[in-house]
Amino acid sequence: GPRGVGKTTTARILAKCLNCETGITITPCNKCSICNEITSGSSMDVQEIDAASHTGVDNVRDIIEKVAYTPIKARYKVYIIDEAHMLSKAAFNALLKTLEEPPLHVKFIFATTEPNKIIPTIISRCQRFDFKRVENVDIVSHLEELLKKEKINYSKQALSIIAREAHGSVRDSLSILDHIVSFSTGDVNEDAIT
Fold first, then answer.
1. Which of 52, 114, 137, 159 is most deeply buried (CB count within 10 A of its CB)?
2. Does residue 144 come out as left (phi exceeding 0), alpha (psi in the -120 to 50 range) or beta?
3. Residue 82, SS3?
4. Under DSSP, is residue 70 helix (H, G, I), strand (E, B) or coil?
């Protein structure tokens, strides 16, 4: 899916669903130690790997060596490979055998903005979920909720402008909002945007 629409966040939520101390669930508790570790990024069993900076075969071999070991604390080891399309063809080929017959305690999640760059032999071994840009009305609603929690005054028109400029990316809308709040008098309105 496009950038900023929640692919990696969804991967983290899925890791929680698989590993929550309450059991495998569609609604993780977000209170247990495993959920908290995944949220904070400190879980030894849930690894996020940025494929843009770990593109080579050596990086994949490191993963392959580690999958043999059982999880330290969680039910499953989860490898979230972000920007997966950046892995080299050789790296994908090195990972292929592990994806064909993964250990029962290991799950792989690939997140990418360019699925067409992932080799077909990998795609054929994955469940694929396509994310789409977030609707402006949903972005506005999300920004309203945040601004209410932060007790910042806003106008709906300003939030509509931010949502339009974000082009369906929640992350971009938050960046725009952050800039406006930082450089304005505190209120988020049309004057603060211009």
1. 159
2. alpha
3. strand
4. coil
Q: What CA–CA distance (Å, rounded) separates 68 from 154?
A: 52
End-to-end Cα separation, the chain, in angstroms: 31
Q: What is the pLDDT of residues 69-86, one digit of tens each?
A: 999 999 999 999 999 999
Summarize pLDDT for 35-44 with one digit per residue, the tens. 999 999 999 9
Q: What is the pLDDT of residue 191?
A: 81
For strand 106-111 and strand 77-82, is the pairing parallel, antiparallel, or unpaired?
Answer: parallel
- The Cα–Cα gap between 143 and 148 comes to 9
Whole-number pLDDT of residue 152: 92
Judged on CB neighbours under 10 Å (0-12, 13-18, 19+), 72 is: exposed
What lies within 8 Å, CB to CB, of 53 at 6+ separation is none
Nearest to 76 by CA among 118, 106, 111, 103: 106
- 91 in Cβ contact with 117 (< 8 Å): no
133: which DSSP letter?
A: P
CA separation for the pair 8, 173 (Å, rounded): 17
